[in-house]
UniProtKB/TrEMBL annotation:
GO biological processes: tetrahydrofolate metabolic process
Protein name, UniProt field: Sarcosine oxidase subunit delta
Species annotation: Pseudomonas helleri
GO MF annotation: an example: sarcosine oxidase activity
InterPro entries cross-referenced by the UniProt entry: SoxD, SoxD_sf
Domain of life of the native organism: Bacteria
Amino acid sequence: EEEFHASGQAHIPRPLDPNACTDAEWGDYMFFRDNPRGLHHELWNHVAGCRQFFNATRNTVTYEILETYLIGTKPQFTEQAAPLTT
């Protein structure tokens, strides 16, 4: 059993009025996610512990976790402020 589980891309805003969305807009919200090479902000769950959700910034090339932060807050690391790797 894994202690942590990745739950997909972070910072996906839910449509304000889902009933007003077209099928294409709802499909985009439900199914289409970024899959970048490099920094990616992800939603994670501590499934074998406190069961809390949190965000993490992870490098998808090296699998390095650069930071974790609370949902609703902004990440410290972005593409513009990425740490240098060698």
